[in-house]
Amino acid sequence: MARLIECVPNFSEGRDLAVIRQITDQIESVEGVRLLDVDPGQATHRTVVTFVGEPEPVLDAAVLAVRRAAELIDMRRHEGEHPRFGATDVCPLVPISGITMDETVEYARALAKRLGEEVGITVYCYEHAALIEDRKNLAVVRAGEYEGLQQRLSDPHWAPDFGPAKFNPRSGATAVSARDFLVAYNVNLNTTSTRRANAIAFDVREKGRIKREGDALTGEIVRDAAGAPVWEPGSLKCVKGIGWYIEEYGIAQISMNLTNLAVTPVHVAFDEVCKQARNRGVRVTGSELVGLVPLAAILDAGRYFLEQQKRSLGVSDRELVKIAVRSMGLDELTPFDPQEKIIEYAIAGRSAKRLVDRSLVEFVEVTASESPAPGGGSVAAALGALGAALGTMVANLSSHKRGWDERWKEFSDWAERGKACHVELAALIDADTDAFDSLMAAFGLPKGSEAEQQASRAAVEAATLHAIEVPFRTMEVALESMDVLLEMAKIGNPASVSDAGVGALCARSAVMGAFLNVRINTKSLEDKTAARDFLARGAKLQERANALESEILAVVTQSME
Q1: What string of DSSP letters covers 282-346?
Q2: Do residues 322 and 367 share a domain?
C-alpha cells in the first residue's frame, strides 16, 4: 500500500486567481504530488488547497507553496470573514493510507522546522503535532488573529515553536498540524443576519455559548466559584462553528469544522442545524463542502436519508452520492462534482484507467485482443459481479413492491449483502489482471548471480501465490452471492424470479471459471502443501456452487409453472 498523506494549506487569498495559481503551480511542479482541489472564497478571502502524495514530496511541495505565498500575499492589506493570522494561515497534514498518525506527527514537525529555517516563517504546531500542551487547540494558537500577533510574540510564553519570534507584518505566522480528516462544512440559511447565524452556530457547536441568567443575549453572565464565565455546551460533539454573512451569495451561513466524523457525521450536523434553525424561525436552504470529503461520509449520508424514506440502502454508490447531494443541497451555491470533491474519486481519477471504468464494449474488445490479460480470471469476476448485481436488483425491487412496505428493511438488508458482493467482484476484475502483470514482472527479474536467482525464485513464488489467491477470492465471493440469489428466488418479487435464475447461472460460472485459474496456477507453485490445500478447498466451493445453482433453478422453474 502506498504511503499517502494529504496536505491542506489555507492561504489568505481568495480573490486574485492569478496569485492563487502562482502558489498552486509550485505544488504541481513537484513530481509525485497530485493537486486535488483548489477552493477559493471571495468573502472569506481564503483559498483551501488539497494535495496528496508520498510524505517527502508532499513536504517539498508545501515548503515551495508557503514560500511563494509569503512572497505574494501581504497580510497588512488582508481582510476577510474567516479567522487568520498568516499568509499561509494553517498547513495541516492528514494520514490517508499506509501511514500512522504518529508518523504523520513527525512529518508535520519536520515541515514546521523547514518552514522556520528555510523560509523564515513564524510557526506554531497544533493538534496532534503540538509540542506544548496548551497549543493543541487552533483557536487558542490563533487567538487575536493577525492584528494581535505582534503583541503575542512579545510574550515569551508565546514564542513560536519554529522560526523567528519577531513579528513579520507581511507574512504573519503559520500553524502546522497533523490531524485526522477534518471536513469544512457550511450550511446555508434563508437570512442575511449574522447574529441569527451565530446564535444557531452556538446552539450546535461543542463549545456552545457563555451561560446567562434569563435572556441568552442580555442576561447576566453566570460565573463559577473562581469568577470565570460558565460555558453552556452545544448539541454536537467534535464540531467547531461560527455564523457569518457571505456577500457574494447574499446569505448567512453556519460555518463548521467537523473534526471527528465518527462522532458527528456530515448528515447529523446538517439535520441538527436544520432543527435549531427552525427553532429560531430560520430555514436551511442547502449546504456546501469546502475542500474534499471522504467517500464514506457521503455514502453514510445517502444511506441515512434513504433510511428516513424507508427505501433500500443496497443501491449503487453513485445513487447514494446523488441522494446525499440532493438531501443536503450540496449543489445549491456551486455544482458538486463527486469526481472532484470526494477524495477517493479525485485520486482514482488521476490514475490509469481501470478495466471496470471502461465501457462494456471496450472490455469485450480488450479481452478479445492479442494481449493475454485480461483473461479468464477477470471474465470470471465480471460474471460473478453481474450475477450478484442481479440478486441485488431483485432485493431492491422487492423493497418497494406495492403492498410490501413493511418489509422494506428485510429486503434492504439482502440488497446490501448483494451489493457488497458485486462491488468486491468488480474490484477483482482488475485485481486478476494486476496479479498476472505482477507474475510476468517477476519472471522478468534478472537471474545472473546466485543472489539474483534466489530473489527471482522468491518473487515468482510470491507472485504465483497471489495469482492463486485472487481467483480463489472470486470463488468465495461469487458463492456468497448465491445465498442472496437463493433467498430472492424464494421470497423476492415474483415478477423478477427469472433474474435470480440468470444470476445463479452467472455466479456458478464465476466459481467454476475462477477455479480453472486456481488449478492452472497451483501447478507452478513450489509449496505443494499450499497447492493441495487450495485445490481441496476450491473443489468444495465448486461443489457447493453446483448444488446452489440446482436449488435456485428448481425454485425458479417451479415458480414459473
Answers
A1: --EEEEEEES-B-HHHHHHHHHHHHHHTT--S-S-HHHHHHHHHHHHTTTSSS---HHHHBHHHH
A2: no
- 313 and 359 in a single domain? The answer is no
- The pLDDT averaged over each successive group of 10 residues in the chain (561 residues) is 86 95 96 91 91 95 97 93 93 91 97 97 96 93 94 94 95 95 94 96 95 80 89 95 93 94 96 97 96 90 96 95 98 93 79 79 91 92 98 96 93 97 96 93 90 92 96 98 98 96 98 97 95 97 98 95 83
Closest CA to 536 of 515, 509, 561: 515
The answer to whether 238 and 263 are in contact (CB under 8 A) is yes
Shared domain for 236 and 301, answered yes or no, is: yes
Residues with catalytic roles: 82, 432
**Peptide bond between residue 83 and the one before it cis (omega within 30 degrees of 0):** no
Q: How many CB atoms lie within 10 A of CB 188?
A: 22
| CATH at 344 | 3.30.70.670
Q: Are residues 329 and 372 in the same domain?
A: no
Cα separation of 351 and 233, whole Å? 45
Rounded CA gap, 512 and 249, in Å?
59
Same domain, 301 and 263: yes
Over its C-alpha atoms, the chain yields an Rg (Å, rounded) of 28
**What is the pTM for the complete model shown?**
0.78
> Which three three-digit cell numbers place residue 306?
434513504
CA distance 445 to 51: 34
Domain that holds residue 306: 183-348
Q: Output phi, psi for 173, to 5 deg.
A: -130, 165
Q: How far apart are CA 385 and CA 428, in angstroms?
A: 9
What is the count of structural domains for the chain?
A: 3
In contact, 560 and 497? CB cutoff 8 Å: yes
Classify 173 in phi/psi space as left (phi over 0), alpha (psi -120 to 50) or beta.
beta
